Protein: Dihydrolipoamide acetyltransferase component of pyruvate dehydrogenase complex
Organism: Candidatus Manganitrophus noduliformans
Amino acid sequence: MSTKVIMPQMGESVVEGKVAKWLVREGEQVETDQPIAEISTDKVDVEIPSPGAGTLTKIYVPEGETVSIGAELAVIGDGKEEGKEAAKPPEVQRPPATTPGRPPETERPPTTAPSPEKPAEKSERGEAKREDAEIGRISPLVRKLAEEHRVDLSQVQGTGLGGRITKQDILRYVGEEETQPAEEQRAPASPAPSRPSHEAPKPAAPLPAETLRFKEFKIPRYEPKEGDQVIPFSRLRKMIAEHMVYSKRTAPHVATVAEVDMAKVVRLRKEKKGSIKEQTGADLTYLPFLISAAIQAISDYPTLNAAVVDDSLVIRKEIHMGIAVETEKGLMVPVIRRAHEMSLAGLSRAAAELAEKARKGTLSPDEITGGSFTISNPGREGNLFGTPIIFQPQVGILRMGEIVKRPMVIDVDGNESIAVRPMMYLALSYDHRVIDGATGNAFLHRVKEILEEGRFQL
């Protein structure tokens, strides 16, 4: 019995990967979970384990070749079916090569001469294959939109990554179909039959008012001039751009800002950073305090730890906290899994380890997927505040601002006085489809209260 080795999913936005190196050769014995290949993507480099024990009978994807997620890389057998498996290599799913204005390449013709087919049969099979391929690559949102407008996906040209059909492609196609009746209405009518001279002409029927339509605005293309520096987008930058545009288009963002007195957190950090460093080996920053405060606030307002699935809101049981990390390649969001089970020291160690892995490019697929809420920490030079973009499919993201000392009016034993306090702005962006202003503001106010009280489980 044979076992297939499949290209694993490397992240929510990763659609392909490259076989960097095979650690086992054809004909060699492997054990279950033994590393057999090194896979490289723009986000992470990882070794994939063997899904079973036996003999690596056939390698279908050579080193250096890039294939789509889910493609069959090799097959592991018990030795008895080696000849059979080697004789039937699967069709490797490679990313479709596209160029601007040109549809993805069609499948290569088989090497053996096909049996004669009628033109109608060829057309029907070709359309079916294209439709199956497109449907397999579109998002649930696009599929639902196509069903609502009764759009045949085989007739739509995809302009997304790798030729995928996007929401804009559907809307553009529907708009072209809807304008057709109006053009037909404006076609010259056939001459009216002549009427007797004694009949009075009937008043003309009022022309139907045309629906006001706006054409898609296209900005003028900028042509680089002498001295300009042209930097092509990397694959990671393209994926980040695609995700950010999708998030802003999908989720109506609302931002709210709170001003927090960080005096007690600053004092507690100063007192405990030495012992935490000895315990975890990591420097105690302000980020673990904010993660802990957000976790406590989510227990009071669990809708912030949710995801929109079709027309439902799924409130997650576990809190997997994403932390935005800037790397040389671009922004990455590693995930602290089950963050609600960790102490302040545990959060400090986990955040430091993930940030170091992100900068080195050694994150595993499990460490960059499945986040349920995200915190963005721009660092010491983060300015006062900013309004972050929600990391889909989450519904909220919290951004730290720079801690700045400012004179503030405080109440001491019923008397007001002016004191210099370390202040920080917290900015929350939330998805207004599912979170109302009252809930979003209440959640942020609860985070502020926890930080100002300075009570944390070390």
Confidence is low (pLDDT under 50) at residues 97-116, 118-126, 128-134, 177-194. The chain has nine helices and 18 strands.
